[in-house]
Amino acid sequence: MGRDRDPARSDADFTFVSPAVKYLLFLFNFIFWIISFVMVAIGLYARLIKQAETALACLAVDPAVMLMVVGIFTFIVTFCGCVGSLRENLCLLQTFCISLTVIFILQLTAGILGFIFSDKGRGKVTEIINKSIVHYRDDIDLQNLIDFGQKEFRCCGGEAFTDWSHNIYFNCSNQNPSRERCSVPFSCCIMTNDTQIFNTMCGQGMQELPYIRAGEHIYTDGCIDKLVNWIHNNLFIIGGIALGLAIPQLVGMLLSQILINQIKDQIELQNYNARHRSDPWS
């Protein structure tokens, strides 16, 4: 049998808002708020240590800028969730819930469109890679990212190693005075386990060699095909990562919506009590 309600206890002491939901949502947002702050700090630091002329050279593909943009947006959204849950603010909680819903829908839409229009997506990836090749020497972060990708995927250029001719330093025209004319970056070079000293100039003049001869020294396959093959071979891993990103969003939406409904019920209860205190005969 349940206990009878204590008549001495005031109705004002009762609340629909669950402390567990409230503080769990706060903790959830606080963790991601800290992560977003670190992302912004790292992105800002990466931008500040670059030279002034480099800072505007390749803004559209700068990983530091992308990190800052994502970090700032996450910072704002999670800040709304933190303050909204702690202060039981309906406006901030609804902003947080709507933002997560929009992000989830956009991610889902992008995934569906990417699957349907995979050919156009390949063209867009080709455009981004070619643009990155053009700005290879302009941005140290972009340079490190490209070198890492070419080493990991054992590839060179976008569709072929000759794509490096799009870069002003590696361009293979006779008018190019660069010492790196007709070369490719060292990250294209084939490295063996028994290599004692790595030659950073191993890509010198490789674009002038026939495809078969160049293949003895560097990776001649383009990174686009390598990337597509890697995606096909790792669909389960990619799906797991996508699910891992979606679960926190769904949890955040669920907790925020539960708290919103509880706060609305609490407001209705307070309004009801206020009306009956002012009119005892109703």
Write a concise keyword list for the protein shown above.
282 residues; mainly alpha; Cd81 Antigen, Extracellular Domain, Chain: A; 9 helices; cell junction; transmembrane helix; Tetraspanin_EC2_sf; enzyme binding; disulfide bond
Describe this structure in a few short sentences.
This protein has 282 residues and is mostly helical.
Q: What is the second-level CATH architecture of the domain at 118-244?
A: Orthogonal Bundle
Main sheet summary = none
Low-confidence spans: pLDDT under 50, at least 5 residues? 1-9, 51-60
Helical stretch count?
A: 9
Averaged pLDDT: 83
Percent in helix: 55-70%
Coarse shape: elongated
Which class of secondary structure composition applies to the elements?
mainly alpha
Radius of gyration: 28 Å
**What name does the CATH topology of the domain at 118-244 carry?**
Cd81 Antigen, Extracellular Domain, Chain: A
Query: What percentage of amino acids are in beta strands?
Result: under 5%
Membrane topology: Multi-pass membrane protein
Subcellular location: Cell junction, Adherens junction; Cell membrane; Cytoplasm; Membrane
Transmembrane segments: 20-45, 65-86, 92-117, 235-260
GO molecular function, one term: enzyme binding
Describe the protein in words:
The structure is a single chain. The protein has about 280 residues and is an all-alpha fold. The protein has a domain at about 120-245: Tetraspanin (Cd81 Antigen, Extracellular Domain, Chain: A). It is built from nine helices and no strands. Helix 3 (about 65-85) runs antiparallel to helix 4. It is elongated, with a radius of gyration of 28 Å. Mean pLDDT is about 85; it is low at about 1-10 and about 50-60.
